[in-house]
Design brief:
The chain has helices at 13-23, 63-66, 81-87, 106-113, 131-135, 146-160, 189-192, 208-219, 252-263, 312-327, and strands at 3-8, 28-35, 59-60, 71-74, 93-96, 140-142, 167-174, 197-198, 224-231, 238-245, 269-271, 289-296, 301-308. It is an alpha/beta fold. The structure holds NADPH dihydro-nicotinamide-adenine-dinucleotide phosphate and N-acetyl-L-glutamyl 5-phosphate (X2W). Residues 9-15, 35-38, 61, 75-78, 80, 97-99, 145-146, 177-178, 180-182, 310-311, 314-315 line the site of NADPH dihydro-nicotinamide-adenine-dinucleotide phosphate. It catalyses: N-acetyl-L-glutamate 5-semialdehyde + phosphate + NADP(+) = N-acetyl-L-glutamyl 5-phosphate + NADPH + H(+). It holds the Pfam family Semialdhyde_dhC_1.
Length: 342
């Protein structure tokens, strides 16, 4: 074992998925596990699927518990990461699954999160152009939001090759685990089961500025985005349907070639064979994003669809992938390519 890792927020969904992946990671030893009101409980009371760790006891989330590890994963509610991260030394790799350090633009942060901006860290989406270089050797990583990962991967190759106008629509159907474990009125079983429900409609969802940030960096032009998330009665998974107007003269062959080139060497992002469309079920538990793209000639638009597991490639898998890059390990170490089916 090369590195020790502490996990803050180990009783939550994101922390639990980080732990599931680290249990299969040959270079990682699992150190402190911390929580807030669950401190003092057995991990097994909150994560019964993580049998090898069931008898570990959750500690309070304090500096004393977290320091002394090579890597600290923060899987805490928004706004809880900055204080802890500030106190951990620069020799520690801190990987934040929350939003605190994702945005460059302090005004956008304050508009969507309503608190002062904590800062900006290297962004944990290795597939974005130039990002692997920024993650190599990093000591701080901001893991993207799950809707942001799926929308960015669905759209960036077409934008990067200037085949579509930066005037985007994204409708992302998402499973309920994206909302975390804390109970919410619209997330009780009888409200969710048998229903599809939009939320964060009309440009109000906090992932809007993060998607725009990523795609503006790719195009170098201002990006207009209409993003609508839809809650679905699934525990895991996001399916994003994304469209953009074709630029004059752009063809379906050029669009397909752009995606083939962008993803040819990617270990975790796969362009499916023509005619096969992604489904969330193809990605469950795997660190994969599956993509398909075509052109709707009557609408004059590119249509790109991507699926991933919000807890794996959408959070914890992205976190471990970025950890591998930051530590100089092979990027794929410990990360599953095979999903669970049916
Ligand atoms: N779920 C997802 O798909 C994704 C989640 N994320 C991000 O990951 C982070 C965690 O989300 P998720 O796991 O879903 O949330 P959960 O509600 O499932 O878990 C939250 C965790 O944080 C702990 N916690 C709560 N308040 C505090 C506090 N004040 N100090 C220390 N620990 C605290 C909880 O402990 P206790 O049990 O004791 O309350 C629990 O372990 C969030 O920032 C989220 O936005 C990012 C991408 C996707
Ligand atoms: C179903 C659901 O509520 N999903 C969450 C996605 C959470 C996520 O990706 O994480 P961050 O909160 O870290 O950005 C949402 O839309 O807010």
């Amino acid at each position: 074992m090369g590195y020790s890792a502490a996990i803050a927020g180990a009783s939550g969904y994101a922390g639990g998925e980080v732990l599931r992946l680290l249990l299969g990671h040959p270079e990682m030893e699992i150190g402190a596990l911390t929580a807030a009101k669950s401190a003092g409980d057995r991990l097994g009371a909150h994560q019964p699927h993580l049998l090898p760790l069931a008898d570990r006891v959750l500690a309070p989330t304090t500096l004393e518990e977290l320091r002394g590890h090579d890597v600290v994963y923060l899987a805490l509610p928004h706004g809880q990461s900055a204080d802890i991260a500030r106190q951990l030394g620069d020799d520690v790799l801190v990987v934040d699954c929350g939003a605190d350090f994702r945005l460059n633009d302090a005004a956008a942060w304050e508009r969507f999160y309503g608190t002062p901006h904590a800062g900006t860290w290297p962004y944990g989406l290795p597939e974005l152009p130039g990002q692997r270089e920024r993650l190599a050797g990093a000591r701080r990583v901001a893991v993207p939001g799950c809707h942001v990962t799926v929308a960015t991967l669905a759209l960036f190759p077409g934008l990067a090759e200037q085949l579509v106008e930066p005037d985007l629509t994204v409708v992302a159907v998402t499973g309920t685990s994206g909302a975390g474990k804390a109970p919410r009125p619209n997330l009780v079983g009888s409200e969710v089961m048998g229903a599809l429900t939009p939320y964060g409609v009309g440009g109000t969802h906090r992932h809007n500025p993060e998607i725009v940030q990523n795609l503006t960096a790719v195009t170098g032009e201002p990006v207009r985005l209409s993003f609508t998330p839809v809650l679905a009665p699934l525990p895991r998974g996001i399916l994003a349907t994304c469209t953009a107007p074709l630029r004059p003269g752009a063809t379906v062959d050029q669009v397909r070639a752009a995606y083939e080139t962008a993803y040819a060497d990617e270990p975790f992002v796969h362009l499916l064979p023509e005619g096969t469309w992604p489904s969330t079920a193809m990605t469950l538990g795997a660190n994969t994003a599956l993509v398909q793209v075509t052109v709707d000639p009557d609408a004059g638009r590119m249509v790109a669809v991507a699926a991933l597991d919000n807890l794996t490639k959408g959070t914890a898998g992205g976190a471990v992938q970025s950890t591998n890059l930051a530590l100089g390990l092979p990027e794929t170490t410990g990360l599953p390519l095979a999903a669970v089916a049916p």
